[in-house]
Write a structure and sequence with these properties.
This protein has two domains: 1-32; 42-169, Four Helix Bundle (Hemerythrin (Met), subunit A) (Up-down Bundle), CATH 1.20.120. The protein is an all-alpha fold. Helix 3 packs antiparallel against helix 4 (123-145). 62% of the residues lie in helices and 0% in strands.
Length: 178
C-alpha cells in the first residue's frame, strides 16, 4: 500500500512544481514595465544641460571662480558662478551635471534633432560619451581642489571631448545632423 501512494504523490508533486515555475516565470516577465522614453532630443539635452554647464566650467579659463562676486540676490541669480552655490561650488556642480548627463546621452529611445535614433550602440558614440565622462571627472576634481592649473588642463580635455563628438555627429552626412 505505501508503494501505491508514493507512485501517486510523486507525479502530482511534479505537476505542482511545474505549474508554480510557469506561474512565477509569467509574473516575472509581466513585472518589468517598459523603459521610459526620453523627454528630449540630443539637441535639447545639449541646450538645456550640457552647453550651459560646460560654459560654467569653461568660464574658469579666464575667471578665477573664487574671485567671482556673488549677486546681490544670489538665490535669484541666473548665473551659477554668482549664485547661492557660486564660485568653485558652481564649477563642481556643473561637473556633476555633465557627469550625470553622460547616462542621459546613452538612454535608448532618445532621438537626434533629425528624428533618427541616437546611435547608443555605436563604438564611436560610446567612446565619445566615455571621453566626456573622463573630462568632467577631471574638472570636478579640479573644482574640489580649487586649482586654476588643474581646471585649465581639465578644460582642454572637455573642449577636446566636445569637439571630438561634434566632429563625428554634427556633420551633414552623419547620423545626428539635420
Amino acid at each position: 500500500m505505501p508503494r501505491v501512494e508514493r507512485a501517486k504523490v510523486v507525479p502530482s508533486a511534479l505537476v505542482g512544481v511545474v505549474i508554480m515555475a510557469g506561474a512565477m516565470a509569467r509574473v516575472e516577465t509581466q513585472a518589468q514595465p517598459p523603459a521610459p522614453r526620453p523627454a528630449s532630443t540630443v539637441q535639447q539635452l545639449m541646450q538645456a544641460i550640457l552647453f550651459p554647464n560646460a560654459n560654467v566650467i569653461f568660464a574658469t579659463e579666464s575667471d578665477d571662480p573664487a574671485a567671482v562676486r556673488r549677486d546681490a540676490k544670489p538665490s535669484a541669480s541666473t548665473n551659477p558662478l554668482t549664485g547661492l552655490y557660486g564660485g568653485w561650488q558652481a564649477v563642481e556642480n556643473s561637473s556633476l551635471a555633465l557627469l550625470e548627463s553622460a547616462d542621459l546621452l546613452n538612454l535608448r529611445g532618445r532621438t537626434c534633432a533629425n528624428g533618427a535614433l541616437v546611435p547608443v550602440d555605436e563604438s564611436q558614440w560610446k567612446a565619445a560619451v566615455e571621453t566626456m565622462r573622463e573630462a568632467v571627472r577631471a574638472s570636478g576634481a579640479a573644482a574640489r581642489a580649487r586649482s586654476q592649473e588643474q581646471i585649465s588642463e581639465a578644460n582642454g580635455q572637455l573642449a577636446d571631448s566636445c569637439s571630438g563628438c561634434h566632429r563625428i555627429y554634427r556633420r551633414a552626412q552623419n547620423h545626428c545632423s539635420r
